[in-house]
């Protein structure tokens, strides 16, 4: 039995799966791989670089712990550029991402296409 919430909506309308599906996002969970790599973060719209430890990594995102913070700690909705040196593969990767959650110095990010960065920045700026 569904519990009715405010404004005529039901509990099912608030499930994360329904929210992601309504935004056209994939709801399957990618396999996470524990890691101890170091990443350098640049938050679009803010000056400076942050250093973070990557605690787990998947094909869709990562969990980061900010080690050195400047004047700004990334928050939910921020877009960033992450450079990560994968020591085991001896390769360096630069990816774009969006912060999907943050708590204290921990961040959950999802990777996005570089082409989506400008589109999302424009969407954020039109919200003012």
Short précis:
It holds the Pfam family PilZ. With 128 residues, the protein is mainly beta. It folds into two domains: 27 residues, no CATH class; 95 residues, Thrombin, subunit H (Beta Barrel).
Can you describe what's shown?
This protein is mainly beta and 128 residues long. It has two domains: 1-27, no CATH class; 31-125, Thrombin, subunit H. The protein has two helices and six strands. A six-stranded antiparallel beta barrel has the order 1-2-3-6-5-4. A hairpin with a 2-residue loop joins strand 5 (91-103) and strand 6. The longest helix has 12 residues, at 114-125. It starts with 15 loop residues before the first helix and ends with a helix.
In quaternary terms, these chains amount to single chain
Based on the coordinates given, report the CATH architecture of the largest domain.
Beta Barrel
Task: Give a short account of the largest sheet.
Answer: 6 strands, antiparallel, barrel
Q: Extract low-pLDDT stretches.
A: 1-22
Radius of gyration: 17 Å
By CATH's scheme, which homologous superfamily of the largest domain applies? predicted glycosyltransferase like domains
Average pLDDT works out at: 79
Q: Helical proportion?
A: 10-25%
Q: Based on CA inertia axes, which overall geometry fits?
A: globular
The number of helices is 2
CATH structural fold name of the largest domain = Thrombin, subunit H
Per DSSP E runs of 2 or more residues, the count of β-strands stands at 6
Fraction in beta strands: 35-45%
Widest beta sheet: strand line-up:
1-2-3-6-5-4
Structural class: mainly beta
CATH class of the largest domain: Mainly Beta
State the distance separating the first and last CA atoms.
40 Å
Written as H for each helix and E for each strand, in order along the chain, the element string is HEEEEEEH
Instruction: Give the count of structural domains.
Output: 2
InterPro entries: PilZ_domain (IPR009875)
Protein name: PilZ domain-containing protein
GO molecular function, one term: cyclic-di-GMP binding
Domain PilZ: 38-116
